[in-house]
Amino acid sequence: FLDFLNKSVMGSMFTRYKTPALVNLDFTVTFTPELLRKDLDLGLAAAKELGVPMPLASITRDMVQTLIGHGYTDQDFATLLLLGAKASGMTLEPENVPVSDGLS
Description:
The chain is an all-alpha fold.
């Protein structure tokens, strides 16, 4: 899926950068869930002030809060992948393969 995404118009520097970590379930911290929650809270506060609905941002903020509540505070925010898998009844396993980040 990530190979397809990265080769499409939906791919980005970010998706390519995170691909090795997601494939291998390497959650070395690059950005914590608390920092992501702070940024989402700032964006939602600005949206509220302007009267702009942000339903997906609100749901994302709740998911990040759930991640924090489950104690994933010392890992990367990409552990959201584990939360989504668990909610779907899936158990993910790292592939333990070298994967290009597409940036070099």
